[in-house]
Amino acid sequence: MTHLIVVGSGVAGLTCALEAAAAGFEVTLLAKARLTESNTRYAQGGVAVALADVDSPASHLADTLAAGAGLGDPDTAGILCAEGPTAIHELIGRGVQFDRDGDDLAHGLEAAHSHPRILHAGGDATGAGIAYALVDRVRAAAVTILEETTVVDLVVDGERVVGVRLLDGRDLRADEVVLATGGAGQLFPHTTNPEVATADGIAMALRAGAAVADLEFYQFHPTALVATDSFLVSEAVRGEGAVLLDAAGRRFMTDVHPDAELAPRDVVARGIAACMADQPGVPVTLDATALGPDFLARRFPTIDAACRARGWDWSTTPVPVAPAAHYFMGGVRTDAWGRTSVAGLWAVGEVACNGLHGANRLASNSLLEGAVYGGRVVEALLARPAAEPRDPQWAEPVVVDLADTEEAAEFTRADLQELMWDAVGLSRDAAGLAEARRVLRSWRAPAVSDVKSAEDANLLLVARAMVDAGAARVESRGGHFRTDAPDTDPAQALHSVLVPARAMVPA
């Protein structure tokens, strides 16, 4: 019997574990915190899928590729859009209660979508609806669950991953390991991600010698509540008609992009940042007052409660918002089945990069990605499809030495986060990236003794890789905007691929 270890408990990891258990695999599911603590749980906006009669997978694919700014992979994005309807029906079969309009599923509209195709659950609690339903199914399945269990590294034997190493020093062996560890929002001081999103999977893959891709592309959500824990205000609020206002109460996004508040996320985020720079000390506000208190409470109950808990009645007064780190388009390089460049290692969900998001993720595609590709890993484990030929859209790997130097000193997470926000945030330039690289190389990873030190070591390693990737792409594209190279260069329409100069898994 094949033993599969799945690290991570978002929609991708839970789906993979359920499919593997149903296929007769021995499955061990590891979660750093509780099973429900993942980026999936906090996702508000919904799931994009072409189910309506006026819509089609081809239209969904066209929107996905357009958002990807010339780097969306047509094959992997096409799989997402074509297999999305089946994945949604499987989620429904597993207990996810999507909102309905009578007997039919309700469809909402979000930025850069040609049709209303966004499914929601609980109004603005879609991720929570998915997470809790899948966790219930996993707990009832033949899956060994280890919660509050920190994986610090992959176990490598020769050139193959054969298990994982835990914080307590134990090694858990398996035939195959799937990374489903989610994102890296804790690289930045302002993020919509939960505290567990510390780039763990990417760092572990790098230390095992795996290739990573597109690390320069990070998506910043335009509208997180200011002076809070960066609580997300869903893009769906703008989809319903809310507008952004400057200090004078003027709707400024109409001057930035023809689609105004429904422009791509990177455009809206930079528009807000520019407006904030022009009005120091005065926040940009999101005005949803025209939607009315009853609609806001019914359609967005989670956001409504969050605003009121913070002392704001957003039905009568615009609320202050600002961009925050939200989603990593880059990650561990995989093919269309989730295979990485290292035997025995798979990756799925936000930790992975198969190219479908390109340089900028289309809103509400991430939950669907986890549902679709979480199942495809198991399909590949069963069918063992042949390796795919190299796609010329993917650049030849660049070898980078990411290891500590002997003279490196200690650092704090707060210092790292501020450095990354300044140098690799919404805007970058050569000088800032070079200085960030120098500083990051002057720091050393802490000795791993507890969860935080393990996370800090992971954040430092991925920060180094991300800065190197950002310096190498001398153009602006999607989530990567360089003030010293503001144009998009057609010659650079290639996915970047980076490999570590040497594996760094401790003996």
From TrEMBL:
<keyword id="KW-0274">FAD</keyword>
<dbReference type="InterPro" id="IPR027477">
    <property type="entry name" value="Succ_DH/fumarate_Rdtase_cat_sf"/>
</dbReference>
<dbReference type="InterPro" id="IPR036188">
    <property type="entry name" value="FAD/NAD-bd_sf"/>
</dbReference>
<feature type="domain" description="Fumarate reductase/succinate dehydrogenase flavoprotein-like C-terminal">
    <location>
        <begin position="413"/>
        <end position="499"/>
    </location>
</feature>
<dbReference type="Pfam" id="PF02910">
    <property type="entry name" value="Succ_DH_flav_C"/>
</dbReference>
<comment type="function">
    <text>Catalyzes the oxidation of L-aspartate to iminoaspartate, the first step in the de novo biosynthesis of NAD(+).</text>
</comment>
<dbReference type="InterPro" id="IPR037099">
    <property type="entry name" value="Fum_R/Succ_DH_flav-like_C_sf"/>
</dbReference>
<keyword id="KW-0662">Pyridine nucleotide biosynthesis</keyword>
<dbReference type="GO" id="GO:0008734">
    <property type="term" value="F:L-aspartate oxidase activity"/>
</dbReference>
<dbReference type="GO" id="GO:0034628">
    <property type="term" value="P:'de novo' NAD+ biosynthetic process from L-aspartate"/>
</dbReference>
<comment type="similarity">
    <text>Belongs to the FAD-dependent oxidoreductase 2 family. NadB subfamily.</text>
</comment>
<dbReference type="GO" id="GO:0033765">
    <property type="term" value="F:steroid dehydrogenase activity, acting on the CH-CH group of donors"/>
</dbReference>
<dbReference type="GO" id="GO:0005737">
    <property type="term" value="C:cytoplasm"/>
</dbReference>
<dbReference type="InterPro" id="IPR005288">
    <property type="entry name" value="NadB"/>
</dbReference>
<dbReference type="InterPro" id="IPR003953">
    <property type="entry name" value="FAD-dep_OxRdtase_2_FAD-bd"/>
</dbReference>
<dbReference type="Pfam" id="PF00890">
    <property type="entry name" value="FAD_binding_2"/>
</dbReference>
<protein>
    <recommendedName>
        <fullName>L-aspartate oxidase</fullName>
        <ecNumber>1.4.3.16</ecNumber>
    </recommendedName>
</protein>
<dbReference type="InterPro" id="IPR015939">
    <property type="entry name" value="Fum_Rdtase/Succ_DH_flav-like_C"/>
</dbReference>
<keyword id="KW-0560">Oxidoreductase</keyword>
<keyword id="KW-0285">Flavoprotein</keyword>
<feature type="domain" description="FAD-dependent oxidoreductase 2 FAD-binding">
    <location>
        <begin position="4"/>
        <end position="367"/>
    </location>
</feature>
<comment type="pathway">
    <text>Cofactor biosynthesis; NAD(+) biosynthesis; iminoaspartate from L-aspartate (oxidase route): step 1/1.</text>
</comment>
